[in-house]
Amino acid sequence: MTKILMTSVRDDELPAINAFAADHHVEILTTPQLIDDAVDQTAGVDGLVIQQRSKVDPRVYPKLKANGLKQIATRTAGFDMVDIAKAHENGLTVTNVPAYSPRSVAEHALMQIFRLLRKSYRFDSQVAADDFRWFSDEQALEIHTVTIGIIGVGRIGGTLAKLLNALGAHVLGYDVQPRDELKGVVNYVSKAELLKQSDVVSLHVDLNPSSMGLLTAPDFALMKPTAGLVNASRGPVVNTADLVSALKDHQLAAAALDTFEGEEKVVMTDRRETGLHDVPLIEELHAMGNVILTPHIAFFTNNAVKNMVDFSLEDVLLILAGKPSPHEVQ
């Protein structure tokens, strides 16, 4: 029987994992550990599925080769944690799950857009301090009266655009590959024009060399002082130090960040006692009253979790059978 090891497994993934094992007559071993700490468990298994935000230890790849593995499947859309060249050097095919549920991230971004437009971050902090007043500068904007800019109009950005369009918002898009099927839904403009015109800017780009530091100080200077920023893509897309300065200087009003630079040090950790002193920029963001932080959970829905499990395991079986996967990372 085919045996597959899955690392970084959470309890909420187990129903989907057990169902897949029963349906496909395979044995699936699970561990909450990262592959860095569980590499010895790959001895005697046929396939491997990982999930992590930190870089895979370079020493893992030759150990996988030595243990006879032929592939690594990451059950995430992002694959920057895997050294593709090093994997290929060791005869390992790498796959990802590029579209486990575009709707999950799009709905999260839509929620955060509403929170920024309704200035809920201010009311949250006021009510938490037992202050139940409201003030003139907290007047909200209705969604059908605003312009929303989407940077990266792919699967997720395109899904968000359709949701916003259905609500009557004016949607601007910036993408290096505009999609014809979104004509009438998205008005494509330059990045500069999008930043200037938008009441909220939502980021939905992959992390690659061209998207690293996509938004920096000059970009924030273009935005309306009343505008908000949503990042549900990847942390390094935004220069955090520049964002902090822009928020302090009132170059933009607020930000909702599900991803942020340095998140690998804090996401899935309990900081109630230790605090955030070792990650000063995140500590500063966390302390700001006009910043909403969430721990990279935009993807975290029922459909998305099942698809991440199913698609990654299907890729393992394809590669073990000598067949190509449509999700292979070159």
What does this structure look like?
By secondary structure, the chain is α/β, with parallel strands linked by helices. The chain folds into 2 domains: 3-100 and 302-320, 3-Layer(aba) Sandwich (Rossmann fold); 102-293, NAD(P)-binding Rossmann-like Domain (Rossmann fold), CATH 3.40.50.720. Helix content is 35%, strand content 14%. The chain is built from 12 helices and 12 strands. The protein has helices at residues 14-24, 35-38, 60-66, 84-89, 102-117, 120-128, 155-166, 191-197, 217-222, 240-248, 280-287, 302-320; strands spanning 3-6, 27-30, 47-50, 71-74, 93-95, 147-151, 170-174, 187-188, 200-203, 228-231, 254-257, 291-293. The strands form 2 sheets. The chain has a 7-stranded parallel β-sheet with strand order 8-7-6-9-10-11-12, with helices on both faces. The radius of gyration is 21 Å and the shape is globular. The two termini are 29 Å apart.
Task: Write out key terms for the chains shown.
330 residues; alpha/beta; Rossmann fold; 2 domains; 7-stranded parallel sheet; 12 helices
Number of domains: 2
The CATH homologous superfamily of the largest domain is termed: NAD(P)-binding Rossmann-like Domain
Q: Using DSSP, what is the number of strands?
A: 12
Helical percentage = 25-40%
Mean pLDDT score, rounded? 97
Percentage of β-strand residues: 5-15%
